[in-house]
User: Fold this.
Amino acid sequence: MDLIELEKKIVPEIFGLMEMRYDILRSIYYNQPIGRRGLASNLNIGERTIRTEVNILKEQGLLNIESMGMYVTEEGRRIIEDLKDVIHRLKGISQLECRLEELLKVEKVKIVPGNLDESSLTLTDMGKTSSIYLKKLIEDNFIIGITGGTTMAKVADEMGQGRVADNILVIPARGGLGKSVETQSNSIAGVLAKKLEGDYRLLHVPDNLDEDTLKAVLKIPDVKEVIELIEEMDILVFGIGRADTMAERRQLPKSKIDELIKKGAVAEAFGHYFDIAGNEIWEHLTVGLSLENFQTVDKVIGVAGGENKAEAIISVASLRQNMTIITDEGAAKKIIKIADKAIY
Assistant:
């Protein structure tokens, strides 16, 4: 029995305290400068508890308190990095990853602690984990495709600045969706390309068009070029969406949304709606990556967190085995519950 296992047996309460202080340091680091009230709100912890813990961390030289708010010191930053693996071991993250790889039958699963439904810190961790993993896969002359959405925007934001390979091209895998420019695939592709010191192309079309307009748009040279590049992608990074949420974002009629839900749609990817077994329910005409293209991309990374995404992750993971799923503890545990219920 190693030291951590012995400590869990003898002083189990110490790990709850360590995890709380770890979360406090991370929250300050990701949001600095931040005040006590904002920190308490982010972590859903009482201000009195926050005040006590912050003072202890300050005395240990892990953070500074200034007029603008709190900052993590360099030693505090190192502690965050060093504790990461310890927290993973305490929570049994490695075992959880292996269990999900077996259940989902995919090549690799990476899990970050927490539940996105309960803490925005988890989204930052997923973005950071995804960006680090993506960076390791990139080689010279690679074409990287990325979809839109809040999660993908965070992946781009968390990507470390610096060239990792020559002649990198980043492209949007889909057309535009929604009113927020920051979370559209064009914007995200641009941010990611600049972080990697690569080039990028833009797809200047809405995500959903009627059939006649779609045919006309696909003849435009700039659009045709990007579509051809999409077919040559080496890496795809995409967010996994719930069917109901994505249908609403695409402003489908309520009658259509109700029909999709009635037929069992739980996930959406690339304009296709799937049930939990990965059976296609309906396809919405969209511009960009097709389901056929998805099957031929060499390296695929799907990212989603929060237990409310569990069914969507199960569904999309069934579409191909040679892919990586990056998710959080909340979704992972919910997926296991769903699988166990199905077995018994």
User: Anything to note?
Assistant: The two ends are 33 Å apart (CA to CA). The CA atoms of residues 311 and 338 lie 8 Å apart. The mean pLDDT is 89. The longest helix spans residues 13-31.
